[in-house]
Amino acid sequence: MTILSASAARASLYRLIDEAAQSHMPITITGKRNSAVLLSVQDWMAIQETLRQLSVAAGKTPPAAENLPAPGQASG
Asked: Which of 9, 21, 59, 64 is the residue whose CA sits 20 to 30 A from 48?
């Protein structure tokens, strides 16, 4: 797993987006107060679908689908 400071991530954001999409590995970005994880949209959608299926299997009402942009589209 790649771990970068927020400053380093900012300097190479487009490369990191490509790396996350191609490698399907999360990238951890650390800041002074918090950290975050960068995933490809495809991986995020797969996680959401898995959670939905697990909710249905457990007899729970799944949450509403999120309106994520298609890969390659900006979310404006």
From this structure: 9
Instruction: Count how many domains the chain has.
Output: 1
Indicate the helix (H) or strand (E) that contains 3.
Answer: strand 2-5
DSSP 32: S
1 CB burial (10 A radius; 0-12, 13-18, 19+): exposed
9-28 residue pLDDT tens: 999 999 999 999 999 999 99
Least confident of 9-13, 25-29, 40-44, 56-60: 56-60
Report the CATH number that the domain containing residue 42 is assigned in CATH.
3.40.1620.10
Q: How far apart are CA 57 and CA 44, in angstroms?
A: 20
